[in-house]
Design goal:
The chain is built from twelve helices and 18 strands. By secondary structure, the chain is α/β, with parallel strands linked by helices. The strands form five sheets. It has a ten-stranded mixed beta sheet, sandwiched between helices. Helix 2 crosses helix 3 and helix 9 packs parallel to helix 12. The longest helix is centred in the first third of the chain and has 24 residues. The chain is globular and about 50 Å long.
């Protein structure tokens, strides 16, 4: 008989028993004593390992806001510097490489070129990280699909072969299936949306494949964000969507960060629950420390596909560790624009706000959200110019 014990912290397999059978009571007692002793040794070894410091987070409900410069290729540089300096001052720590020595930037490309994460913002964040001792080889840019990354210019056309880096940084597409592990997934009983629709028109009548059904329940997680980076930053956009109400910060970090996510959009309740539950997966959440949202372009109705007729623009950039608060701010802007244009408001409040808040991911009550506007006063040090509450 053989037992194998694996330490999750050390990744070491230990063969603790190896024998055919227990011949007597003494043998049985000695064997179990050996097993218990081995387990205790491994536990003490794990406890003795140095704990890796987690990246710092700012308090819930705090959102920093900075102005974007107009008509400049580096229009985001000053705003990013001001916001990151404000964040670092608030948490009392500077962003810097840790034990893993890598960082990832999650870009949002779901709505196409007109509503994707601005490339100028991506470049500005890369520059800011480089100033904090991250080499460009250690910065990853990640997104949902290669086709969307290619459309906005983060990947080259298919006609160009060979390795490609954007501003010296590696670009990863989750739909390549190269960055997933069969043991790490979000499990949901919902069927894939496309198969469900197809069966309605094709007269599907039989052949339930249990193994295939199990795979269809799974949305695989992005392994680099779990095990390869010190932290990752979400560069989200804001657009309305029927299934979510607000397809913004939470959705970018969850649904558009896993595989097989379109199935959740069939049912708004399922979509909201999936967003909150994926966001609360410890290994994904523990290194997700910051979110940028550019208001250079946001869409208040007609989404999630880009429609320039229903977009607004403000020269502002937000930064927060609280994705729920940021989505609530987008929700307020969407509804304000809808009222002005004579459209019905998004109602009721998107359920993922309540679900995510109940899991400790942030706050959505307006009374708990503060916008701190920052600027530069005579140098690079951030100065609070104004603190705004929503009530």
């Amino acid at each position: 008989m053989q037992f194998v014990f694996m330490s999750r912290l050390t990744g070491v397999k230990l063969k603790v028993l190896s024998f055919e059978s227990f011949f007597c009571q003494v043998d049985r007692r000695c064997a179990w004593q050996s097993f218990v002793l081995t387990v205790l040794v491994v536990v003490f070894q794990c406890l003795a390992l140095p704990l890796q410091a987690q990246p710092p987070r700012a308090e819930h409900g705090l959102v920093w806001e900075a102005s974007i410069e107009a008509d400049a290729s580096n229009r985001y540089s000053a705003a990013v510097d001001q916001l990151l300096a404000s964040y670092e001052s608030s948490v009392g720590a500077r962003l810097q490489p840790g034990e893993r020595g890598k960082v990832a930037l999650k870009v949002d490309t779901r709505s196409g070129r007109g509503m994707a994460t601005p490339l100028a913002l991506v470049r500005a964040v890369i520059d800011a990280l480089e100033q904090r001792s991250f080499s460009r080889d250690s910065i990853m840019i990640v997104g949902a699909t290669a086709s969307d990354l290619r459309q906005i210019g983060l990947l080259p056309p298919l006609s160009q072969s060979g390795a490609f880096k954007f501003a010296g940084c590696e670009v990863l597409a989750w739909d390549s299936n190269l960055h997933q592990d069969s043991e790490w997934f979000y499990d949901s009983p919902l069927p894939p949306a496309m198969r469900e629709k197809a069966s309605m028109f094709e007269g599907f009548s039989g052949g339930f494949d249990a193994a295939e059904s199990v795979i269809d329940r799974k949305s695989f997680l992005p392994m680099p964000l779990l095990f390869e980076v010190d932290f990752w930053i979400n560069l989200a956009t804001g657009v309305d969507a029927p299934a979510l109400g607000v397809d913004g910060v939470l959705a970018s970090a969850t649904l558009w960060n896993v595989s097989n996510s379109q199935r959740f959009l069939v049912n708004p309740a399922a979509a909201s629950a999936a967003v909150a539950e994926i966001a609360a997966i410890p290994e994904l959440a523990e290194r997700w420390i910051l979110n940028f949202v550019s208001l250079e372009s946001y869409q208040y109705i007609g989404g999630p596909a880009f429609n320039s007729q229903y977009t607004r623009s403000e020269p502002k950039l937000w930064l927060s560790s609280d994705p729920v608060a940021l989505d609530r701010l987008l929700y307020e802007r969407f509804n304000r624009a809808r009222r002005l244009e004579g459209f019905p408001e998004i109602y009721p409040l998107p359920r993922q706000f309540v679900f995510a808040a109940s899991l400790g991911l942030g706050v959505y009550e307006k009374s708990q959200i503060r916008i701190q506007v920052v600027g530069t006063a005579g140098g690079s040090n951030p100065t609070a110019l104004e603190i705004i509450t929503l009530d």
